[in-house]
Design goal:
By secondary structure, the chain is mostly helical. It is 44% helix and 1% strand. InterPro entries: Amide_Lactam_Regulators, XnlR_reg_dom, Zn2-C6_fun-type_DNA-bd_sf, Zn2Cys6_DnaBD.
């Protein structure tokens, strides 16, 4: 006789909503997201807690399976974001005694898999000449069981560190606005729509907070603690695979390159150099280095900006540290960026990034730093110099630093780009200086150095030095070298009294300007102190030793180093003034250029100049730029 179940024994089955948010699902509380889909998409619980409300994607239904005892639930159907705000997962999965209970050891069980649509945004790039590319489309599926243990550990990391907890919305918005206002012209890897969305990536927001905090005026050395907090959280989210969208991950890693607080002599993964390498490899994996992949991308403009940012940073770090390039030209076939790649093509920052990127492609032609490169010729050197002239000429057509009355127009972002232009001019003569008359080199680099320092001075007047990145320390170091060389020599605009020691007062003045600016930067970037102390020491030794200071830096007196055209033929630099198409108010050194003739220098004009001997003096290995 069949037993009749009583109402007390009957289990009541409650229907469960299939539209819930991730946080309510994780907390096992009732969610009313389905009632708010049309009015903002935020459930009542998340609204009360001021948390980001994300809809939970339902796992695909599977065929009913009978009597599968001891089967461990597979978490492959949940993204790592499902773990936000959860309690710590059961440790049983990571204990030695429980690892053997993975699904592959259950007889007859089907192996679950992770799968993602094969689009250009999330499919790994396989080169056309790889054997793998001949096998047709490759599967994007990976065994889910492989990630079970990792996901549990990652969820514990996120919970224990609180990495997914964002600061107040007002602070997040303020820090993001600093990025778009002061850094976007150099690192345009994030769009406004990326942070305007209610479901904005937590990893990206933490990375943006890092960028914004780095841009804040430091109140003390403890200001780094705030930046480190955002850095540590973003780093934890990155390594715990919190974000799954490849392009969003790459945007975040690009911003993590801003974390540079240790000198380059310190070996650590917590540096801009390490994050840059990781970002470049990840970009290669996505295929951002190949133009053929862009036609199918959902955000081709943003992807192109990211790729060119990485390219530019790679070249700057290469010439700064003297380390190998990570992006080779033969592997990088992208079209140059244009203003149409930006959300707002009319924004001046778009044009500034386009011009800056073009300048970095010219800098790349000077790499690697080999002063005795046997393949280099004077013709090749002059071709690079011609490109520099074309770049600055084109820049002045679009962007102006003087008005019609000859008054300087202040634009911090433009001034920063111009400092990189003059840094490239000095670097050019470091690499190709042997093809040109030493006195010509001394004059051009001294004028370029003066322009750099005066532009930085204009920024300092307005307290805008604060917004420069660590790599600018290297630019300042480069600017100091021609000044140190010229320090003990009078130029044609300076009259030296008989009792004078021969110290160039203008070089003293400009060096002091530079040293004062660098001293300010040590508060935010402690590594700048090493560069500061080295320049100070050189300055003191030159003043103390006078003429004997030549021996300290490998300089030669004219009598000991005759530059007669009979002994050596130097290449002529045509139209030197085209390197400096600015009014003379940009620098007090500009008068030096007006004493030059178009194609050659008057005899005896530079006979009082000591050979700068760039190959000896401008030795980057002797400096610790600490960017």
């Amino acid at each position: 006789m069949a037993a009749v179940s009583s109402p007390g024994n009957r289990q009541i089955h409650r229907s469960r909503s299939r539209v819930v948010c991730q946080r309510c699902h994780a907390r096992k509380v009732k969610c009313d997201l389905i009632l708010h889909l049309r009015d903002g998409g935020i459930c009542t619980n998340c609204e009360k807690r001021a948390e980001i409300c994300r809809k939970r994607e339902q796992p695909k239904p599977s065929k009913p399976q009978r009597h599968r005892p001891s089967q461990v639930p597979v978490t492959s159907g949940l993204s790592s974001q499902d773990s936000i705000g959860t309690t710590s997962p059961s440790p049983s999965l990571i204990q030695d005694g429980e690892v053997s209970r993975f699904p592959e050891q259950i007889p007859g069980s089907a192996l679950p898999v992770h799968s993602s649509p094969a689009t250009s945004d999330n499919q790994g790039y396989i080169g056309e000449f790889s054997v793998l590319s001949t096998q047709g489309p490759l599967s994007c599926e990976t065994p889910a069981v492989v990630g079970v243990l990792s996901k549990c550990i990652e969820a514990q990391i996120q919970t224990s560190t609180g990495a997914d907890q964002l600061p107040p919305k007002s602070l997040t918005e303020a820090l993001s606005s600093l990025y778009f206002k002061y850094l976007y012209h150099r690192i345009p890897v994030v769009d406004h729509q990326d942070v305007a969305s209610v479901c904005s990536s937590t990893l990206l927001q933490q990375s943006l907070c890092l960028a914004g905090s780095v841009l804040r005026h430091p109140k003390s050395t403890k200001s780094l603690v705030e930046s480190e907090r955002f850095y540590a959280r973003a780093k934890a989210l990155f390594y715990s695979n919190h974000e799954h969208d490849p392009l969003t991950i790459l945007k975040s890693v690009c911003l993590l390159t801003l974390w540079t607080v240790t000198p380059p002599a310190v070996v650590t993964i917590d540096s801009g150099w390490s994050w840059l390498g990781l970002a470049i490899r990840f970009a290669f994996q996505i295929g951002l280095h190949k133009e053929s992949t862009y036609s199918q991308r959902s955000s081709p403009g943003c992807a192109r900006r990211i790729a060119w940012f990485l390219y530019a940073q790679d070249k700057l770090h290469t010439i700064c540290f003297g380390r190998p390039q990570m992006i080779q030209l033969q592997d990088f076939d992208l079209h140059p960026p244009s203003v149409t790649d930006f959300e707002n093509p009319e924004d001046g920052q778009a044009l500034q990034f386009v011009l800056y990127t073009k300048l970095m492609t010219i800098l790349a032609q000077m790499l690697p730093l080999q002063q005795r490169d046997p393949t280099a010729t004077s013709e090749k050197a002059l071709a690079i110099l011609s490109e520099l002239k074309d770049w600055v000429g084109n820049m002045t057509l679009h962007l102006h630093i003087f008005d019609n009355s000859g008054i300087l127009i202040y634009d911090r972002a433009l001034y920063e780009i111009l400092t990189w232009y003059f840094t490239c001019v000095i670097s050019f003569f470091h690499v190709h200086g042997r093809f040109f008359h030493p006195s010509v080199i001394s004059t051009i680099t001294l004028v370029a150095s003066s322009c750099i320092i005066r532009l930085y001075q204009e920024m300092d007047y307005r307290d805008d030095i604060n917004y420069l990145m660590p790599i600018n320390n290297w630019s300042m170091m480069v600017a100091s070298l021609p000044q140190l060389s010229s320090l003990r020599h009078e130029n044609n605009t300076v009259t030296i009294a008989e009792h004078d020691t021969g110290i160039d007062p203008l070089s003293l003045e400009e060096l002091d300007i530079l040293l004062e600016i660098m001293a300010e930067r040590t508060i935010k970037f402690p590594g700048a102190g090493a560069v500061l102390e080295k320049i100070r020491r050189f300055r003191t030794e030159i003043i103390s030793h006078g003429a004997s200071s030549n021996a300290l830096f490998g300089l030669h007196e004219p009598s000991k180093y005759p530059w007669s055209s009979n002994e050596r033929t130097y290449a002529t630099i045509p139209r030197i003034h085209e390197l400096f198409p600015f009014q003379k108010e940009i620098s007090p050194r500009m008068d030096l250029l007006y004493t030059m003739e178009t194609d050659e220098f008057p005899s005896g004009l530079f006979e009082n100049f000591t050979d700068w001997s760039i190959e000896n003096f401008f030795n980057l290995d002797d400096f610790n730029p600490c960017p």
